[in-house]
Design a protein that fits this description.
single chain, about 325 residues, alpha+beta, Helix Hairpins, six-stranded antiparallel barrel
Length: about 325
């Protein structure tokens, strides 16, 4: 009578041991965690110019396509700036043309002075020959020599003016520094005017929208968010003791708490290089006398490879991740 209970106890113990072993093996090959959250690229919509909002084309939670209009900023001041910059560009082009004319005139004056100096030298040589023969006075020879020196000085002055004109001119045409500066100012004004019409940076959903016509907004200050829905991933925080077999590329099963009966397919993209606490504002100081070992968690990014439009995902919602580590035999 006593043997039967002992046998049953032994069988039960054996069954529990086998079950525990099977569970341990399964957990090692298919690590899972419910410390996981859905994520996606979120664009903070911030205008590149400031001003008064004239029109808003979207509503909160509305779905938009890439380059769909979002809102407009009053363009009047930016149109005026563009016209002003265009006028300055015209003036710069005219100034460059004028400087080119002055440079050409200075070069022509140099050539003229070179001819006058050559004539003065030739005349001085002839006079010197006539002076030696007694046909001209020494004063005439001295006057001719003085004319040569004067012509040389005038040539040097003309060359200096030509050098100054070339320096002031710089490069010619559209390569002129003043023209390039004015052209850059005009392009900046054109961009500013274009930036008064703000468009969607991706396909997705509008979030946190409270913008209305008449609001004054500042440049580079976010006014609402755009959640891009082309790609979703799950940030799964696995225990460090679960990472031995996990590798990028392994398939994963995703269960989102929003849809308990819906299963999503995923793939491990990467494994974090540090724990979640490593980059916190006040990381734990483990080199203390009252240290207690705590199992850390490492973020693993799992890409959602198959989305279902009937089950749209939401950023920040909870999920459970199970990874099939048997798919890639690289450990």
């Amino acid at each position: 009578m006593r043997i039967l209970p002992l046998t049953l106890i032994g069988v039960a113990a054996a069954a529990i041991s086998i079950g525990a072993y099977v569970y341990w093996q399964h957990s090692a090959r298919y690590p899972s965690t419910d410390d996981a959250y859905v994520n996606a690229n979120t664009v903070r919509i911030a205008p590149l110019v400031g001003g008064r909002v004239t029109q808003v084309y979207v509503r909160d939670q509305q779905r938009v396509r890439l380059n769909d209009p979002l809102f407009d900023i009053d363009p009047e001041a930016f149109s005026l700036s563009l016209r002003e910059s265009e006028a300055r560009l015209t003036l710069a082009q005219q100034g460059a043309a004028s400087a080119q004319g002055e440079s050409d005139g200075a070069e022509a004056e140099v050539r003229n002075r070179e001819v006058l100096l050559g004539n003065a030298k030739a005349n001085a040589n002839r006079n010197a020959h006539l002076v030696t023969q007694g046909f001209l006075s020494h004063q005439s020879g001295d006057d001719a020599a003085a004319t040569v020196k004067s012509a040389a000085a005038e040539l040097a002055l003309a060359q200096a003016k030509a050098d100054q004109a070339r320096t002031a001119l710089g490069k010619m045409g559209e390569q002129n520094a003043h023209v390039r500066e004015a052209a850059a100012t005009r392009e900046k004004a054109q961009l500013d005017l274009q930036h008064t019409h703000v468009q969607a940076a991706c396909d997705g959903y509008i979030a946190e929208l409270s913008l209305h016509p008449g609001d004054i907004i500042k440049e580079n200050t976010p006014v609402f968010a755009l959640i891009c829905d082309k790609e979703y991933w799950v940030e799964a925080n696995f225990k460090e003791t679960q990472l031995e077999r996990i590798r990028p590329g392994q398939p994963a099963t995703i269960l989102v708490d929003m849809y308990p009966n819906k299963q999503f397919a995923g793939k491990v993209e990467n494994i974090g290089g540090a724990t979640g606490t490593a980059f916190s504002l006040l990381p734990p100081q483990n080199a203390t006398g009252n240290w207690v070992k705590v199992t850390q968690r490492i973020p693993v990014r799992v890409l959602v490879t198959q989305q279902d439009p009937h089950f749209p995902l939401r950023v920040g919602t909870s999920a459970t991740i199970t990874i099939d580590t048997t798919a890639l035999k690289n450990f």
